[in-house]
Amino acid sequence: MAKIKSAFFCQECGYESPKWAGKCPSCGTWNSFVEEKVQKDIPSRHNVDWRSDASPLRTSKIVNLEDVEGAEEKRWLTPDAELNRVLGGGIVAGSLVLVGGEPGIGKSTLFLQNALLLNNVKTLYISGEESEQQIKMRADRLKIKNDQFYLLTETSTQSIFQEIKKLQPQLVIVDSIQTLQSPLIESAPGSVSQIRETTAELQRFAKESQTPVFLIGHITKDGSIAGPKVLEHMVDTVLQFEGDQHYAYRILRTIKNRFGSTAELGIYEMTGNGLRQVSNPSEILISQREDMLSGVSIAATIEGMRPMLIEVQALVTQSVYGTPQRTATGFDLRRLQLLLAVLEKRGGFHFGVKDVFLNIAGGIRVEDPSIDLAVLCALLSSYEDIGIANKICFAGEVGLSGEIRAVNRIDQRIAEAEKLGFDKIIISKYNKKGLDLNKFKIEVLAVGRVEEVYRILF
Ligand code: TYD
Ligand code: MG
């Protein structure tokens, strides 16, 4: 029996140290060291290798880049167009994909559904969280049948690889990486050393057998995938599944992708029987209303590669308490404070005595800065209690001095607004250069400063 050793691991970045330290020398985080038992160098290491008839030692040699044969990476398209999009065009053979998301957001549903939809692909779904009956119940709810779908409720990587060898699956899904345990490491499942070891074992399996592996991972409160950053370095692709649990919409974002762009995004709606792909998000994200309501404006944003029209709602009321409240859902609170400061200083509006609430429709988090102008207009509309005409939308970033700045891919935004029947779009005058306005039927108004927008609207 080998001696059990322990080491201290930074829970933030995975840095390993033989003794405890208050501050991590690698990433600078305070109080992040936790002691974990590690057992190293046990001779039976090859027992947990996915192929116990261990491959002969490979010797590497230097090659000239010109001599390397460029192999087209093999990809399969899944029936889910949104998933294909975020993966950069389908599942790549031998890739290791990590999917993060808050508990209850629908990660298990998404991958169970996709695995069941993949016909003629032998899939192994490894669950350390739910029983076979629970998964069966969920599959019944999804109403999809597939005779090539196999389940394994197991957490030890040693047993998992034994089963994999017998079944020879073409796709492996692990739900979740935090439940796996390698017999090589003493510490509890979910600890830094366990996550690192089990991921490394699965990575070896994925690369050597050319089988794609999806790892589902939980997310901590601050939005990072639980377990250290090393996990993100080890995998090829990191996806994030997000949304507000009280709303039906979910977004699948690409955070990292060795096989494609990270500017991709998939949109789903959670229904009573699984997730539904949303192919034209604008039509559901703006409410179809006839009357003008104050505090509501429409932003022409681009999320991922897709233009999307989103409704912004603001409520500005007289503050009752000494310190005015500011709340934002789906929008960065600091950005809201900045826009309020711009209105206060450049426009002379007295937001300092008002409570401000801001909400992006559908529970969606928007990262595109072009939503600034719509947020600003919604704030002004609620402040003045004057509605903005229904058929106007906005695309512009707001600068600190109150200038309206240009945003990228303005043509696409204008075209989307036109397609959805808008009459007018307000953009930055710096976007107007080089823009062929004759090709649009929609009226395009170009503005340079916040004051000009105010004069147009109110
Ligand atoms: P789940 O996939 O278990 O989330 P995660 O794996 O991310 O923790 O999904 C959780 C929620 O999804 C649960 O509250 C129920 C809901 N749900 C539906 O609304 N419709 C469905 O068809 C399914 C399967 C789940
Ligand atoms: Mg789950």
Q: Quick one: biggest sheet?
A: 9 strands, mixed
Shape: globular
Question: Based on the structure, what is the oligomeric state of the protein chains?
Answer: single chain
Q: Major sheet: order of its strands?
A: 8-7-9-10-6-11-12-13-14
CATH superfamily of the largest domain: P-loop containing nucleotide triphosphate hydrolases
Average residue-wise pLDDT: 87
Organism: Chitinophaga skermanii
Pfam family, one: ChlI
Motif (RadA KNRFG motif): 256-260
Keywords: ATP-binding, DNA damage, DNA repair, DNA-binding, Hydrolase, Metal-binding, Nucleotide-binding, Stress response, Zinc, Zinc-finger
Give an account of the 3D structure.
The longest helix is centred in the middle third of the chain and has 18 residues, at 192-209. The chain folds into 3 domains: 1-44, no CATH class; 75-277, Rossmann fold, CATH 3.40.50.300; 283-457, Ribosomal Protein S5, domain 2, CATH 3.30.230. It has helices at residues 81-86, 107-117, 132-142, 157-167, 192-209, 230-234, 282-285, 333-347, 372-384, 410-419, 450-457, and strands at 5-10, 16-17, 33-38, 75-76, 91-92, 96-101, 123-127, 149-152, 171-175, 213-218, 237-242, 249-257, 265-271, 274-277, 296-303, 306-318, 326-329, 354-360, 392-395, 397-398, 404-405, 424-428, 443-447. The N and C termini lie far apart (80 Å). Helix 5 (192-209) links the parallel strand 9 and strand 10 (213-218). The protein is of the alpha/beta class and 458 residues long. It has a 9-stranded mixed beta sheet, with helices on both faces. A 4-stranded mixed beta sheet has the order 15-16-18-17. The chain binds thymidine-5'-diphosphate and magnesium ion. It comes from Chitinophaga skermanii. Residues 355-458 are annotated as: Lon-protease-like.
